[in-house]
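Table 4 source record.
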Amino acid sequence: MTNVNKLNLEQEFKIALYEGKINQLNNNNSKIYLKNILKKMMIKDNVIKYCIKNVIR
């Protein structure tokens, strides 16, 4: 379960794309918030995928 909290290459790319869009926003707090939310959502997806692969057998 060591790799569960890491983003894969596709997810890192999505983060980079979103960062480009987020950087166009004016409010710095909004930028920080959105980046953190996106990363947490992707980590959540990884945990769910791990559970489906390894717990439900």
